[in-house]
């Protein structure tokens, strides 16, 4: 094949050398605008894993890189006068110029044609090429030429940063956080050769403007940074290699995602690679890794399918399918890390103690978890667990393992939970006339015995016409009290768990069949009239609800008050008001379901008016020493719907009205929703509301193991974790997760004690491979 790589960065050079090595008959040319062995940049970072992969694919270049790089395991954080360090992280740093020079020499040795000082304006400049690699960076001319094909989605992020260097050498990947009168600045610092360290300074747009950095020339900006970070620089100066840029040289990061990566231009196949296809924020240092991995995977697919031109179409499709998954994973992690730095001042730096701040920073991408930190640096993590346990009021012995965060107690008002795990409300559709019966006793009682700190029944309806289905639980009349009191008495008498009741009204999502008979499908007989904020049905075939008038509001508010009074008589410990998932109160909050033009529609204040009226009435009759939480849909995942910004506004309103906790869910407001799933994908909503609004939160969604819960709680992203489906699969989920992480101090019910040691022994044998 005839291959042209446009752009002589890591992606283009590494692909060229791999393909020439794998199949020397290829005619490969790399076209680069810079002069030979002349490039720019400070240091680049990639992981030990990338280095291992490079050794497998081309040992000659990898060995030279390995001899030239700076390797470190430690991360050090300077914050509020403290210096904290943890180890075991495994990074590689090398000068960008040094890396490219090594790859250039290797290409030349293999016979790749390197063409320097040449601007390639178009892929059409190479009509004889079978394959054109567009590795010409984030501002790729090739990608922009075919924008309608590649569908680039470029987003400019709000923070400002300046990329500098210093001759002071750092022996750890160092993060230095400095508070000014106008906000926080942070420096990302790492050594990349025997003489130099990269020194990136980052801040918010507000702090950047307030300090007048946009009006400064580069020298003044550099002097500002030298003064701000004087303590860590120890008299060393900062250097720039961006003299070609006008003004102060502060930049914004551009996040890039492309809809497709390849195109046939009529004569050649064109494929994007590296920053031309995708970008990843420097907060996790993966841009070079992604470029190298792109090159490896494309070469790998040609090696599998054959190196002839007839393989190109199939190879490019497979390459994109495989790489898109890994790139999305890295970009998600980079987005999490990037957003952490964008809000570090508003959300963490002012309020967190240094210990929790360090933990939050280490886990900012959500790729590094609690148990992963234990593998990296057991001593540091156990020290943090001791610190967290003391903050929770426990007495700890320094040289003994203490309870990890999810197992520490938590107190709200006069209620103390034995641990931080909540059995999330989950509809069972198994009640008759709303009565909690033997099924619910066994179902909920088993979860209480299973070790959770708080057990919620499913959404409990405040009237017969508030039900989702005829099988939903209710608490609207005296006859329903006995079942609830029986469950509460059992739970209090046989476990350490507390009982929560979630009150709600189905609104426009009511009068439907039980899930297994047709979820969300309207009842064919025995239904009831529906009410909602507006006359908008949930599904095209759903009944059209009545838009509530004042009389409807008065009746529903009275229903919630009556149910709250009954709930108090059950002896339950916790009440939750359901304002999520498109049910009645949620329908007022979302603009997708509220199109009213009166005092209950339009602005945030108007849309929240009726839900807040209900909350205040409920709070007034619920015992003052017992907490009330509010469940919110923190994102509608539908264009025109509520986002996390709106959720924060509503959370603040409920906080001011007296809510103790916000239960942070999302979605289920519109069937048109398109959630962005991922690891712990709803936790960022909890994180934001807890740390910006300043109210305790419950995190929900895709929390399926102790490692998840410990990571969330340790980092201060939530105070409690609600676990749903894993509790359906395993009533003793909490006890089993304790055993899986080797925590033997958590008690089992005395009736089950004989099984505890056997269960733990079986886990020990399995981990030992016996």
Descriptive terms for the model:
eight-stranded mixed β-sheet, 39% helix, 770 residues, globular, 30 strands, 19% strand, eight-stranded parallel barrel
Overview of this protein structure:
The chain has 770 residues and is of the alpha/beta class. α23 links the parallel β28 (661-665) and β29. The radius of gyration is 29 Å and the shape is globular. The strands form six sheets. Strands 5, 6, 10, 11, 12, 13, 14 and 15 form an eight-stranded mixed β-sheet that branches. The chain has an eight-stranded parallel beta barrel with strand order 20-21-23-26-27-28-29-30, surrounded by seven helices. The protein has 27 helices and 30 strands.
Secondary-structure-based class equals: alpha/beta
**Approximately how much beta-strand content do the residues carry?**
15-25%
Q: Helix share of residues? A: 25-40%
Largest sheet: 8 strands, mixed
- Overall average pLDDT: 95
Principal-axes geometry comes out as globular
Number of strand segments: 30
Helix segment tally: 27
Poorly predicted spans: none
Distance between the termini: 52 Å
C-alpha Rg (nearest Å): 29 Å
